[in-house]
Q: What sequence folds into this?
């Protein structure tokens, strides 16, 4: 059918208007490390699908007891459990962004996947003890921390997690959490009945002690990559540093949570999770906290943040996710049927 020119122009105007509106939504939903879910449109399933369609989806891997593992390649919307050769508790998992993931576990077990977590094989030469957390330094080295014989232990791998070299950070205790700022600084935290801390500017070759005076076991540490770090521990204790981990201020969060992990969620927000599914978030780099409830009802042991979601995993195969940076939560599962201890994300 032939339309008059005026109607054609009107139709063109409508299409241009729709295009402009669409581009506006895209711009507002454009996710990056500093802006994830501030717009309500981005908090809907349709918005999430649009973001995934416009940009590569984030990729996730979760690990747990008895070598349990699951992966997601659609920004955490759906999960696929997989079999692995592991038999121990795997608490640390990280990726280099090429599809290679490294998972570290108890009693000398470490695993590597080269296909986005779909299949796994044992490292050929892991350390003899337990590695409780792991990161990638962006330049071909994986650094892990934990304990082995004596409780003070770290290790690094330069061949994709296949073989490991042990080092002694000098903290004198088990170290549970590690984080890397993307520039050059690593920080590890831990302790049992005491708070321990060390930092490295040499990719984990050598370590220097730092002091976190909470007096309790510290479980995890995170950074915004701009010199701010926050560490969390048991009995409601947290500590924050605004000078790249050199000095720390300890305090009670006031939420009554025994924390297990923490992640930086962008736009100045930090989210910590822990026992019973409780947690807290901070918008001032750890100086004050607001209580949150994930709704899990069981321990949430680990958390990581992608473009749209922050996702946590925990006991009873629970998986919790939030698209508004910790205010509201949805409860799902990974499908493994196991206690899950670690989660990692790749943001393309």
A:
């Amino acid at each position: 059918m032939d339309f008059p020119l005026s109607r054609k122009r009107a139709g063109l105007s409508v299409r241009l208007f729709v295009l402009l509106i669409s581009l506006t939504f895209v711009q507002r939903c454009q996710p990056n490390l500093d802006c994830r879910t501030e717009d309500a449109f981005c908090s809907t399933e349709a918005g999430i699908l649009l973001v995934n369609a416009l940009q590569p989806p984030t990729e996730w891997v979760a690990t747990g007891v008895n070598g349990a593992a699951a992966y997601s390649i659609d920004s955490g919307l759906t999960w696929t459990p997989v079999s692995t050769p592991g038999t121990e508790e795997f608490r640390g998992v990280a990726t280099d962004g090429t599809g290679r993931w490294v998972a570290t576990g108890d009693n000398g077990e470490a695993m590597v996947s080269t296909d986005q977590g779909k299949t796994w094989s044992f490292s050929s030469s892991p350390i003899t003890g337990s590695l409780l957390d792991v990161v990638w330094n962006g330049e071909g080295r994986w650094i892990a921390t934990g304990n082995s014989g004596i409780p003070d232990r770290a290790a690094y791998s330069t061949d994709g997690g296949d073989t490991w070299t042990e080092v002694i950070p000098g903290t004198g205790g088990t170290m549970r959490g590690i984080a890397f700022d993307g520039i050059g600084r690593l920080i590890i935290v831990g302790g049992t009945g005491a708070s321990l801390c060390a930092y490295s500017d040499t990719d984990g070759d050598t370590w220097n002690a730092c002091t976190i005076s909470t007096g309790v076991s510290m479980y995890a540490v995170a950074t915004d990559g701009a010199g701010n770090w926050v560490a969390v521990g048991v009995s409601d204790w947290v500590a924050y540093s605004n000078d790249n981990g050199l000095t720390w201020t300890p305090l009670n969060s006031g939420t009554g949570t025994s924390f297990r992990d923490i992640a930086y969620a962008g736009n100045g927000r930090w989210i910590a999770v822990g026992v019973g599914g409780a947690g807290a978030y901070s918008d001032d780099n750890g100086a004050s906290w607001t209580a949150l409830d994930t709704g899990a009802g069981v321990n949430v042991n680990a958390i990581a943040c992608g473009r749209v979601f922050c996702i946590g995993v925990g006991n009873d195969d629970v998986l919790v996710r939030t698209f508004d940076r910790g205010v509201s939560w949805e409860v799902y599962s990974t499908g493994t049927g196991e206690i899950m201890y670690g989660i990692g994300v790749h943001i393309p």
In short: Residues 1-41 have pLDDT under 50 and may be disordered. The chain has one domain: 40-346. Residues 40-346 form a domain with the Neuraminidase fold (CATH 2.120.10.80). The longest strand covers residues 150-157.
